[in-house]
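Trying the structure run again after the queue cleared.
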Amino acid sequence: MPAAVQEKIRISKLLADRGLCSRREADAFIEQGLVLVDGVVVKELGTKAYPHQRIELATKAKALQQRRLTILLNKPIGVVSHEDPDRPYTPAIRLITPENLWQTESRPRQAPAAQRRLETRGLAPAGRLDIDSTGLLVLTQDGRIARLLIGETSPIEKEYLVRVEGVLSAQGLKLLNHGLSLDGQALRPAKVSWQNEHQLRFVLREGKKRQIRRMCELVGLKVTGLKRIRIGKIALGQLPLGQWRPLGPDEQF
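Done. Tokens:
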């Protein structure tokens, strides 16, 4: 379609679609004059542009993004991902304290200044992990990471070890890999295999509510334990239960 007849789109949406920041961040950057369209600063919220136009963040905006904290937590059972005033459970954010920072010989006892101060404002879970599940949970102040990890269309794999009870037929295993539906929607293909005689390994690229437990129920299995061990290229590794560490500057999902 020629550019002249293309429809203009909100700049905040174009920035988010291109993975440069979240829409909320885009609006904040626009208000601060940190967004440029074809080299011209934009300051008015709701401004639109054509998809073919060059849209970029100012150097200051990129520097602000680099200072945003992303945390990896080994969530215990009994802790909820998101804070909910209507539920009397401990939210994951309350575990992000100096005392729970994972210390090893390869990680200096003196944490970087941003981590010592532990400015957790804006830190939120990028995805969920059920109260009765454990393992890797990401909390971030970076809208780009949240957008990458959250949602049924996320390209990022999540890997789980799942203890089960019951008998699984060859056909049931085939259905776990592809062929099941939840909430009236067909599930995307998964990778499901036996880890040992009591434990399955799941690799998913979507995250419907309690998806693995519900999938297992559909093939006659009961989940007795669920642990997330990897998100994209980031593995839980030796991170102790209930402790956290910052995402390293050279680590990417």
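The CA atoms of residues 40 and 55 lie 9 Å apart. Worth checking whether this holds up in the mutant runs.
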